[in-house]
Design a protein that fits this description.
heterodimer, A: mainly alpha, MetI-like fold, 2 domains, globular, B: 340 residues, mainly alpha
Chain lengths: 281, 340
């Protein structure tokens, strides 16, 4: 009994620690007082002010475009990498390959940012590309670190999956590419959706790497928020944060429900398939 | 989808046949086919077709944008700072058509060793990251354990609640603590109102604020690998221990804890390594005397515009992290092998 109480309070403390700050942030975004720490009644005026803030809105569009493009590239490259790691056995250079996939997960962002910037500057000096820094360089940087996350997700999905279905298709004469398109891709689709969403939010969230590789006129939303936060707490940023949290939570919950439903349907199909086979035998 | 659903898809594709070209444009089809064949030959030569493509494309991408950059950082850490664009001198220079001069400047590294600021910043970063990791473990382990022992129906929701903050912006979560920890912030107002304290506590701009920020931001990274490990554990081992008269607390210490060490290692490294190079948290929550190396690198680059010294700082930081990163790679590799 006492053990249950201990575990329960550990969970309660942990969740309170995780959610109380966000909750306070949301509540104080409706605070009708210029002093952020003193409660002055409810208002929506900070949300109105947000809509009139052109530099934040402009940065938001930059961030959104960068996030969509880099998430899509990250899914394409990360899927290939995950497939190679999970299905290709031991190929030449696998150790290096695996290392390059896992290292970006823990590499401090200041190092990744600095090294990519120096690469872009050197490349510009050598071949003239990329000409200057801006959205393109941010997209490349985000693709690089997000593809590692996608690769890990795809790999763990694939290694938890039965290889026999793919082998069966191959035995029936399907070419590898067709096997991938018709069998593997539908099976790992949930992992791709999860990977895309993760890559998208990672890109939308990144401050440090973007600060290094961005150029004039291509400030992302976190960069604008950071320069504003440095000057102090502002209710407008609270409003922005609330919208962000709302947007992300709704997205995640919808994606979670959809994936869960699809997974259950797949399991039911499997059961049906197996019971059908049992009857045939 | 029933089993019937699979068949019509293939049949439909077969019945439709290849799309036919509009009248008068058939020659274009042949030209395109010819071009494609040439492309295939070239691509095959480059190893960019079929199975090799799947490996080579991400491999080349990562080599170009992850591996090569480190070599360039290493190179520039030996350059000299210069007024210009880019703000450093080249290492290799043709002095005459037939003579290549290589100038390696070790000054940046001796500078790091001589100025105690850098050494203190490195040591302080390691200390802060280590203490934060232990704090994460102390909060995260009971949470992961409780989730792993919860009713299976509740586990996905409980886990989702741990992951959800990780999806919301990192910057916003750190920002939330500014409003709480400020001297005129919510925590101080609350404590003053309660009458627990007579005057505001100075928490922001101290090391304590950095610990709070790091633990808060990195807690999900600790809980997830721990949960994955604890959830897989064979419960019959605990039953066996109980049958043999072992008290629960002892069973935990002698069975559960040792078996969960791989999870502890993975979680600790996922917290420790990024925390050493953390920039945002010390910048926003810490004070000017709380040196951390990520912040030093940032200032060296953005404020002083000294790219060579910033590169030397990065290389030295990498040297500190090589062992933890190798350890992490090894743990990951072992986990992959066990899974396959």
């Amino acid at each position: 009994m006492s053990r249950g109480v201990v575990l329960f309070s550990a969970l309660a403390f942990g969740y309170a620690f995780l959610y109380l700050p966000i909750l306070l942030l949301i509540i104080y975004s409706f605070n009708d007082s210029a002093n952020v720490a003193i409660w002055g009644g409810w208002t929506l005026r900070w949300y109105g002010a947000l809509l009139g803030n052109d530099s934040l809105l402009g940065a938001f569009w930059v961030s959104l475009r960068v996030a969509v493009v880099s998430a899509s590239f990250a899914v394409a490259l990360g899927t290939a990498a995950g497939l190679a790691l999970a299905r290709f056995g031991r190929f030449r250079g696998r150790a290096l390959f695996g290392g390059m996939i896992t290292a970006p997960l823990v590499m401090p962002e200041v190092i990744t940012g600095l090294s990519l910037l120096l690469l872009f500057v050197t490349l510009q000096g050598l071949i003239g590309w990329p000409a200057g820094r801006g959205m393109t360089t941010i997209m490349i940087a985000h693709t690089t670190f997000a593809m590692a996350y996608v690769a890990i997700i795809v790999q763990s999905r694939l290694s938890g999956m039965d290889e026999s279905v793919e082998e069966a298709a191959q035995d029936l004469g399907a070419r590898p590419f067709k096997v991938f398109l018709v069998i593997t891709l539908p099976l790992i689709a949930p992992a791709l959706v999860a990977g895309w969403l993760l890559a998208f939010t990672l890109s939308l969230d990144d401050l440090v790497i973007a600060s290094f590789v961005s150029g004039p006129g291509s400030s992302t939303l976190p960069m604008e928020v950071f320069s504003s936060v440095r000057r102090g707490v502002s209710p407008e940023i609270n409003a922005l944060a609330t919208l962000f949290v709302l947007f992300v939570s709704v997205g995640i919950i919808i994606a979670g429900i959809l994936l869960n439903r699809q997974e259950r349907r797949r399991q039911r199909d499997d059961q049906l398939a197996y019971s059908g086979r049992a009857q045939e035998v | 989808m029933s089993r019937k659903g699979f068949l019509p898809l293939g049949q439909r594709m077969a019945e439709a046949g290849p799309p036919s070209w509009p009248h008068g444009l058939q020659w274009l089809e042949q030209v395109l086919e010819g071009l494609w064949a040439v492309c295939l030959v070239v691509l095959r030569r480059l190893g960019l077709v079929g199975r090799r493509l799947v490996v080579n494309l991400p491999f080349f991408w990562l080599a170009l944008f992850f591996l090569v950059p480190f070599a360039i950082v290493l190179e520039i850490s030996f350059a000299e700072s210069d007024f210009g664009q880019p703000p450093y001198t080249p290492l290799f220079e043709w002095v005459e058509p037939s003579a290549l001069a290589i100038r390696i400047n070790l000054g940046n590294y001796t500078f790091l060793l001589q100025d105690s600021l850098y050494i203190l910043a490195y040591l302080n970063s390691l200390k802060i990251a280590a203490i934060s990791t232990v704090l994460c473990l102390l909060i995260g382990y009971p949470m992961a354990y409780a989730i792993a022992r919860a009713d299976p129906r509740w586990r996905p929701a409980l886990l989702m609640l741990v992951i959800l903050p990780f999806w919301t912006s990192f910057l916003i979560r750190v920002y939330a603590w500014i409003g709480i920890l400020n001297s005129d912030g919510l925590l101080n107002n609350f404590l003053l109102w309660l009458g627990v304290i007579g005057e505001p506590l100075a928490i922001r701009h101290t090391e304590v604020a950095i610990y709070i920020g790091i633990v808060y931001s990195y807690l999900p990274f600790m809980v997830l690998p721990l949960y994955a490990n604890l959830e897989k554990m064979d419960r019959s081992l605990l039953e066996a221990a109980a049958d043999l008269g072992c008290r629960p607390i002892r069973a935990f210490l002698t069975v559960t804890l040792p078996l969960s060490l791989p999870g502890v290692l993975a979680g600790s490294l996922l917290v420790f390594i990024p925390a050493v190079g953390e920039f945002v948290i010390p910048e926003l929550l810490g004070g000017s005397d709380n040196l951390m190396i990520g912040k030093v690198l940032w200032d060296e680059f953005f404020a002083n515009r000294d790219w060579p010294v910033a590169s030397a700082v990065a290389i030295a930081l990498l040297l500190f992290l090589v062992i933890p990163i190798m350890l992490f790679q090894w743990a990951q590799g072992r986990q992959q092998e066990r899974r396959t």
